[in-house]
Amino acid sequence: MKKLLFLSLLFINFGFAQSGFIEIEIRDSIRIKPKKFEYHVQISESKFARLDANGVAGTDSTKIKMREKYQELEVLLENKKYKTRPLNNSEFQIHDYAGFWKLGFAVELQNSKELEKLTTELKTLDYISGSVGEIEYGDTELSEKRLFSKILAKAKRKGQMIADLTGQKLGKIIELKEGKDLVENISIPYGATYLSSLQNKNWDVSKNILFGHQWKTVMIKFSAE
Questions:
Q1: By the 8 A CB rule, do 26 and 154 touch?
Q2: Tens of pLDDT along 42-78?
Q3: Which residues is 113 bridged to in the sheet?
Q4: What residue spans define the domains of the chain?
Q5: How far from chain centre, in Å, is Cα 123?
Q6: The CATH fold of domain 34-137
Q7: Does the reported pTM lie above 0.85?
Q8: How many Å is the maximal CA-CA distance in the chain?
Q9: What is the DSSP letter of 104?
Q10: Signal as a keyword (predicted)?
Q11: Coil/strand/helix, residue 52
């Protein structure tokens, strides 16, 4: 009877040792270079709208002035040989009041130097605002592989540290689960007057270089003895 009880306790202890683990959550990112991106140059309605005695904006005069500036901006971009598209598609426009729509152009750029050149040229115009729009990246599968490699290496270092501190031996990865990420807000360096803050855009600027962030949160479970 005592022998049977001893074997039972031994089995329980062995099973507990086999099921030991160290679980770690890692959240990290890598920088990725854009393949191309758009810069949205928009006519600022606030520069032209004037309120009457009843507090109503003079829509007709505002529309005329904004259209004039729109044409002026179009000529400037054409002369500088920029590849552009209108921010609005007139085929889908219901109202003819410019204030309901973004009146301006999306300018296609390849790199940060082109962006710097464009914003310098546009600073001569005091009736526009600008912001980075859609960003297109290259091989997303390759960048994801880089990010996973970075996360796994970081997790192994942290797991080994915990194992050493707790007197355990770190084993293999037995489970890996991706978490959900909230998109990071951008940060803009002081002085970049034509880069307006856009929420939920996963890009950043450092030393006048525009780049993207790819974030990932991963739960990693190591076996431990």
A1: yes
A2: 888 777 766 455 545 556 777 788 888 899 999 999 9
A3: none
A4: 34-137
A5: 26
A6: Alpha-Beta Plaits (3.30.70)
A7: no
A8: 101
A9: E
A10: yes
A11: coil
